[in-house]
Amino acid sequence: MAFTLANGFAYVELARQAGLPVDAFAPRLSFFFNAHIDFFEEIAKYRAARRIWARWMTERYGATSERSMQLRFHTQTAGVSLTAQQPEVNIVRTAIEALAGVLGGTQSLHTNSMDEALALPTERSARIALRTQQVIAYETNVAHVADPLGGSYYVEALTDEMERRAEEIFAKIDEMGHGSMLEGCIVGIDENWFQGRIADSAYDLERAFNRGERTIVGVSKFLEGNEEDQMDTLKITNADEKKQRERLSSVKQDRNEAAVQDALDRLAKDAVDTEVNLMPALIDASNVYATVGEMMNTMAGVFGRHVEVPTI
After folding, report:
1. What is the C-alpha to C-alpha distance for residues 39 and 96, in angstroms, rounded to an integer?
2. What contacts 35, CB < 8 A, 6 or more positions away?
């Protein structure tokens, strides 16, 4: 959560450097969060994020519009929580995670399908994931009230703690950037600080599972029935790949190659100038059917490609 908001602050600072008034662009910013399985902690995470965003936008960046202070965010249930063993149990996990997102104030929601630890979802499993959202939205009535757990001693205490720890991370990033969240985020990426913290967290969680300090139903405990697991999964065949290649080939044959090259040349030229917004060139390239790969390769020719430093 803290890393996500820090990136948001970095974009705010970059936009302000470009001369944009904060209230002109901040209401259009939106965020993407993951909903994990620790129910109350997830709710507290979203509540803390909303508090932090409102405070920073007013106190640090001078926003006066209420819409600039509102944290607009989408939530997706956690793919990492899905298990290949007893995959039907993933329906329960997803429902709990989705409910946490709703109670935390998400504006939109994606629910993962039960078979995504095994393959891309089938139509049936995707429909069950959709119905999970619809039951929450239309049968439980939990979305009829804002912040329904506000005032709960436990949730408020968790929210305060989440906020406090996030502020500690912001202070570190700000320090790395010598008073700039933008520069701090750049330093954090270049020095592998973000990646290292994420890797450490993942390692600690895995050790907790291996030591039996945390339980995964159907994986570390309650294994009865695993040997009976049978689920039809979506199969992507060579014929499917061939069909997609033929579609792409058809698009390339029918498009105006000269227009495509002109658009890519313009994109490369604009990319050299750090003062030029690349979005118009990207839109123009898309309109003449340049592929995503062609556009990315063009920009990579100017910017190079990020090479991650190994995290030890």
Report:
1. 7
2. 42, 75, 76, 77, 78, 97, 98, 100, 101, 106
Q: CA dihedral in degrees (266, 270, 272, 274; nearest 10)? A: -170
Quote the tokens at residue 154.
Answer: 């436990």
Mean pLDDT of the chain: 95
Whether residue 74 contacts residue 102, with contact meaning beta carbons closer than 8 Å, is answered with no
Residue partners of 40: CB distance under 8 A and separation at least 6: 100, 154, 155, 158
> ∠83-310-12 over CA atoms, to 5°?
85
110-125 pLDDT per residue, tens: 999 999 999 999 999 9
Q: For residue 224, give the nearest of 37, 81, 85 by alpha carbon.
A: 85
What confidence tens digit (pLDDT) does each residue in 45-76 have? 999 999 999 999 999 999 999 999 999 999 99
Q: Is 136 exposed, middle or buried (CB count within 10 Å of its CB: 0-12, 13-18, 19+)?
A: buried
The pair of three-digit structure tokens given for residue 290, joined into one six-digit string: 């340049």
- Tell me which long-range contacts 139-142 makes (C-beta under 8 A, separation of at least 24): 140/99, 142/99, 142/102, 142/103
pLDDT tops 80 at residue 229: no
Q: Specify which residues 108 forms β-bridges with.
A: 74
